[in-house]
């Protein structure tokens, strides 16, 4: 789907506030209500807009420990990768899983309440993931930037 300046602006506004009314959205982007609504619906149908979500404050929910874990697998065949990727889906504390280039195979982001909770997760679940050869954990000390917004460029 080719995006014009209105589409891009709609996406920028919705990233900041998915609860904005269609009337307010159309006013902010300079379109009338119906064309704006049609554009949003088209972007949803095309898969550009995946979901409208509520972003939670992890610290207020007592989930203030973020851990980044590099994972190296024993094998790199298709079944091994598939088995690992399926298994991480079942661990709620893993909030992100990325395949990576270089010496490590995956980068996981884990969010937990405490270091003790992470230790339990590590011993009981992470070390038992399929074909894990090595895990290397790094604890985030402070979050300097946090955004869910993608950098949508002008056309």
UniProtKB/TrEMBL annotation:
Record's protein name: Lrp/AsnC family transcriptional regulator
HTH asnC-type domain sequence ranges: 3-64
Pfam families: AsnC_trans_reg, HTH_24
SMART domains: HTH_ASNC (SM00344)
InterPro entries: AsnC-type_HTH_dom (IPR000485), Dimeric_a/b-barrel (IPR011008), Tscrpt_reg_AsnC-like (IPR019888), Tscrpt_reg_AsnC/Lrp_C (IPR019887), Tscrpt_reg_HTH_AsnC-type_CS (IPR019885), WH-like_DNA-bd_sf (IPR036388), WH_DNA-bd_sf (IPR036390)
GO CC annotation: cytosol
Gene Ontology molecular function, alphabetical: sequence-specific DNA binding
Source organism (scientific name): Opacimonas viscosa
Lineage: superkingdom: Bacteria
